[in-house]
Amino acid sequence: MTVKATNGAALGSAPTQAVVQKLQDVDASKVVVTLAESLKPVPPPEELVFGQTFTDHMVMVTYDPVNGWGTPEIKPYGPISLDPASSIFQYSTSAFEGMKAYVGPDGKPRLFRPELNMLRMKRSTARIALPAFDADELLKLIKKLVALESRWIPNLKGHSLYIRPTIIGTRPSIGVRASDHAILYVICCPTGPYFRTGPKPVSLLAVGEQVRSWPGGTGEFKLSINYTPTFHPQQLAAEKGYDQCLWLLGEDSHITEAGAMNFFVVVKRDDDHLDVYTPPLDGTILPGLTRASVLTLAAAHPGQTTLPYLPHTLKLHTHERLITMTDLFSWHASGHLTEIFLVGTAAVVATVGRVGFGDKVLEAPKCEGGLGPVARALYDRLTDIQEGKVEFQGWSVPIDA
């Protein structure tokens, strides 16, 4: 005799397989576009302040553990309503990216190496256990948004449309576990040059007692929790007359980052060529897109490409190695230190003029025009590639409006 279970399965027979519903991934083809009823005036480029003026529209898509990612929306820019217990408020479950769109010579908007932003955002999202998403589909949504907001892209040298893709955990519970609810959104703001009055040397205060990141931590991911602990040390540095903190780590006081940018040093060799050093990606340093691009361009000079202003006979030897404060002062004392510069999405390239370390102050070599020779060459070549004026390895990606 076969006894039937209440769920219809026969006791003693092979168990039935549970039906597992496949959760929906982000699908850009399903995007619903709702246009703003009225468009905001675009401010003159000279009045732009980074991060304060936002465009008319935004991308938004939500995730829940039953259905997965919902229907993407492009809708008017506006507030987001969240439960007060959402994990973003309680446990800082947030990852983001920084990208830029430019106007090319053909009038089309374009992005700079966007696939690398998407790859990094997926890694950052996984590190804090937020729901995964199809990065290719997110990039399609970003392109649609940029095409829609193309009137906001300033068509001037050094200007761009800054793009901030963000994912936040929205699980409405203060229980300490990963968020199984999320919102993925993208906002944009037009921006001018990082230094509105022209490039100027940055001053750094070396900080070792309050670290930005540590081995096994989250320094290599673009997470909101990496930035908040830097605010107080930055205030202390400003009180002492410095622009940014130079983040040190370990008993040897080796350099990781400066502010929120990657750190580079140029050292003259005995053969009069140049070594270009930057700290290695050891897990404590964000793998910056500008950092990777600078290393590639510097290594390509002069064999694969010739950087502007630099002699054809000059060779740049790139190295990823630990740089200690002892190294820095030793190169300076020997007269071999020629430049210190920083790189990142916002500033692209910025020269360092002064570094404070304890009771010591290192005055970097003076440079004309606010940038040293190598920094200037890299800045001009990078911005020309970003704006589509120079082609290099397909880094500049046009968007069809």
From TrEMBL:
EC number(s) stated in the UniProt entry for this protein: 2.6.1.42
A biological process from GO: L-leucine biosynthetic process
Domain of life of the native organism: Eukaryota
UniProt keyword list: Amino-acid biosynthesis, Aminotransferase, Branched-chain amino acid biosynthesis, Pyridoxal phosphate, Transferase
InterPro entries, A to Z: Aminotrans_IV, Aminotrans_IV_CS, Aminotransferase-like, B_amino_transII, BCAT-like_C, BCAT-like_N, BCAT_family
Catalytic activity, as annotated: L-isoleucine + 2-oxoglutarate = (S)-3-methyl-2-oxopentanoate + L-glutamate; L-leucine + 2-oxoglutarate = 4-methyl-2-oxopentanoate + L-glutamate; L-valine + 2-oxoglutarate = 3-methyl-2-oxobutanoate + L-glutamate
Keyword Acetylation appears in the UniProt entry: no
Pfam families, sorted: Aminotran_4 (PF01063)
Cofactor(s) needed: pyridoxal 5'-phosphate
An annotated GO cellular component: mitochondrion
Residue list for modification N6-(pyridoxal phosphate)lysine: K222
Enzyme class: transferase
Entry annotated with the keyword Chaperone: no
Regions that span the bilayer: none
One function term, GO molecular function aspect: branched-chain-amino-acid transaminase activity
Family indicated by similarity: Belongs to the class-IV pyridoxal-phosphate-dependent aminotransferase family.
NCBIfam families the UniProt entry points to: ilvE_II, PRK13357.1
PANTHER family noted in UniProt: BRANCHED-CHAIN-AMINO-ACID AMINOTRANSFERASE, SUBGROUP IIII AMINOTRANSFERASE
Protein name listed in UniProt: Branched-chain-amino-acid aminotransferase
Species the sequence originates in: Cristinia sonorae
